[in-house]
Structures are given as C-alpha cells and as structure tokens.
Amino acid sequence: xxxxxxxTVRWLILAALLVFWELFPRTGIIPELxxxxxxxxVVVLARDWHEYASELAVTLYEVFFAMLIACGCGILAxxxxxxxALLRNLLLPVFxxxxxxxxxxxxxxxTAWFGIGSQSKIIFAGVYGFFPVxxxxxxxxxxxxxxxxxxxxxxxxxxxxxxxxxxxxxSIPTVLTGLRLGGALTIIGVVVSEMLTSSAGIGYLxxxxxxxxxxxxxxxxIVMILLLSIMFDVLARAVERRTAVWQTAGRKQRExxxxxxxxxxxxx
Amino acid sequence: MKPNLTVxxxxxxxxxxxxxxxxxxxxxxxxxxxxxxxxxxTVSAGRFVVLVxxxxxxxxxxLMMMAGLRHQxxxxxxxxxxxxxxxxxxxxxxxxxxxxxFPWLSALDNIAFPLxxxxxxxxxxxxxxxxxxxxxxxxxxxxxxxxELSGGMKQRVSIARGLVQDPPVLLMDEPFAxxxxxxxxxMGHELLRIWxxxxxxxxxxxxxxxxxxxxxxxxxxxSARPGRIIDRIxxxxxxxxxxxxxxxxxFAKLRDRIWQQIRKGE
Lengths: 268, 266
Hints:
Chain A is an all-alpha fold. Chain A is 77% helix and 0% strand. Chain A binds chain B through residues 145, 147-148, 150-157, 161, 165-166, 169-170, 172, 244-247, 249-250, 253-254, 257, 259, 262, 264, 267-268, and chain B through 67-69, 86-89, 92-94, 96, 98, 100, 102-104, 113-114, 116-118, 136-138, 140-141, 144-148, 150, 152-153, 156, 161, 182-183, 186-187, 190.
C-alpha cells in the first residue's frame, strides 16, 4: 500500500481531533463543563457572532498597533545594535538577558501608568514583541557575508549604496523570521493582558465567561484566538516565502531549461 | 587570435600597474607585523601576470591594494598611471575567490550590479550584461539565481561582472580555488579565451603551480612573510595554450623552477 502524503496525514489528524472533540463530551467521557462539544461551541459562535466580532475588533486594533511598535522599534534598534560595534558590545548582552525575563510581570505597572484601556495592552504587547524582532534584526545584520560587502566596495558602492543594495536585502530573511516570532508574541501579549485586567477584547471574553462557568462561550473565544494566530502565521510565512525566494529555493532546484539544439555542452 | 605575446614588446609608455618600494605593516597583538617588504613590479598593458607564493605571504593583500580596497603603509602603487586611493571600477575589475554573487539577484542582475550602482540606463545595463553573459559562455542562463548555478558557472558570472564596466585591468584572487580539478582546468582555458577576446591586463593570484604556468605570460614568485618578490619567470610557451602543453618538458621545467623558488623563499 502506498503511504499517504504527510499533508494528508496532517489533515486526517486534525479531522480526528475535531471528531473526538464532538464525541467525547457527548458520550460523557469528558464532562461538558471541562470541554463542551464542538457543535455547541459553533452554535454559540454563530448566535453571538456580534459580540465576538466587536471584541475581536478591539483585539485586532490592539494587535495592529502593538505590532507597529514591535516591528518599527525592533528593526530600528536591531539595525543600530547590529550595525554599530560599540552599541553591540554595550547593549546586545543586556537585550539578550532581558529577552529571558517574563515581561508579563511589568503588566500591572503598565496598567498603573496607562490605565486598563487599549493603551496599556498595546504598549505591553509592543514591548513583548520587540525583543525577537530586535535580536534577529541585529543578528541578520551582523552575520552578513563580508565578501559581499567587499565585492560591492570593489565595484565602487558608496556607503548608502552598500546599505540599500547589500545590507538590507541580505538581512531580509532573518528580519522576517524575527517579525514572525515577534508578531506571534504581540498576539500573545495582547490576549494575556486582556485576560488579566481589561473591559474589552477576546481575552476579556475568556475571563468573563470563565468566571460564570459558561464553557461554550469560553471555548468560542479560544477558537477565535486560535484562528487569529493561525491566520497571522500563514500570512507571515507567505510574505517570507515571497520576499526570500532565493533563500528557500535552494532546496527545490529549478529544472534546467536547456535550449533545444544547443551545440555547445553546458558550461561548467 | 591574440598576437604571440612571447615576442617581447617594447614596454608601452605607461605600464598598466606600477609598484615601487611598497611596504606594508599591520598592527598585530605583539606590535607591528611586516606583511609586505619593498615590493617593486611593473605589469605592462595586456599582460597576464600570475602571483604565487606560500600561504600568508601577502599576495592577496597586494592584490587588494591594487583594487584600492586596502592601503599600503608606504611606497608607490599606480594603476593606469594613478594611485588607488579608493576602488575605481573604471580602472579595475575584481574577481574574488568565493564568487561573492548577490544571492537575491539573478545572474544577469548580478552582472549589471556595477552599472546599476552608477545609474546606467536600464536598457544599456541589460545590453551590456547580456553581452558579458554571452562572452563567458552562459547564454540563456541570465534568469538563474546563484543557487541554481554550478560553482564554475558562478565564477563565470563573477568574471562577467568584473568585465562589465570594461576596465583595462582585471584582478583575480584565486578565483578557481574552490572548484574541483576538472572544472578548474576548463575554467582556466575559458579564462584565456575570454582574455584573448578582451585584451585586458590580468593579475591573477593562485596556489596552483600548474595553473600559474598554464595561464601566465609572467609568474611573480613571492617569499613567505614579509612578502617580497623573489623571482620573475617569463613563460615562453606559445599562445593559444593547449592542454597538451602541460605534458611538455618546457612546462615541467617552468613549474619546477617556480616550485624551487617558493621552497627557497619559505
């Protein structure tokens, strides 16, 4: 028998999980309070879509601005730290250690400073997502092949030309990986902060319905968050693939298109 | 065909490269390290000169100085009658050991890169780089990216890029060192064909003695650090060179002489 393709297997596993999600609570193996059946969650989502949509809008708004902060500041700081040796030696160890700190402990302070509205979420999630973006940008710039810069200089490239035509394109793949990680963290940051202290957003819905033991509504919110993160990841990967074709393409060699009737042998 | 260069021309009024009393030291951990010592040499226009010497003797440094990418501590170094204060693609093209092609650009765009830097009109860029692509035998491969090319093809692109601005001098820093033996031989032969069609002055650094004799009009042998020029060997094999010449006694003798000189200089 032919082995099924890995992607087929992945879809089968997902389908099986969904089936179990429906069957286990229905047959009473798992109490409905802990895991409501899939169909109930779907019904809740369909009935109260208005509430979910308006809270999702709040979350999306916060995620958008948090990502703007994380990416903008992260790329800028990463470029400076990666490109300037003095800053790198001074700051890189500090930033690397800060990355390991659970920044969520700062959130109560942020609410004191910026209130419990969207502002504190945006700033908290922005800071949360900043680190991977900044660190990978710095790494991307630091690990540029010196030979490429030397070659560009030999061709008379000025410093701005070296930046625009060599450093930026050469660091795009690493920076994009950082943006994907940082973007995922900002989503986490927004949702977590909404769950902790707030009055709006998908994270807030999770907390509110949990306190009144309304499991279908809690799971409805969880499904929304899942979909949001998956969509972001798919989007980020697509951008990564498009912008860095030459990097990933190394593994899937293009077919050699020999012109028909070529007399000379293929050059070595 | 190229005129037989073993017939010694009277040197033209201005040599392509003129180095006189050049010294170079760099700051090491324990004070200044002399890297090049009292280098003097002249490369006439249109000659193919090969630099050989033990590892670390400073041949690459000397080449980088000719390219304007490094600066000597003292002494004179003129290319086309002018000192090299900074890289000048109008005078000098450089081909590096690693092909150092930009992976995000197609072969054609890589070749056009020096033209793009100076804002040459797109149509002209395309025409020039296509011409170079054809010259190096890569017709039809312009749309490929570097990762889709073999090692030899990458070096062909790299040579095309070095020639695209039509500089009178081409400097090559062990361009075929990373290639396998067979490809290396083919590439050497190809380089001679390209050279004979473009009449450039070439300074070529290599570790391979066979390559040195096969390619050169003249081989300059350098000593171990601090690098000095210890011998200057004229290769009086006729051109065009053929693979069969490698089996001749003249070839073996020349190769042997270079080898003896390198050993003496170590």
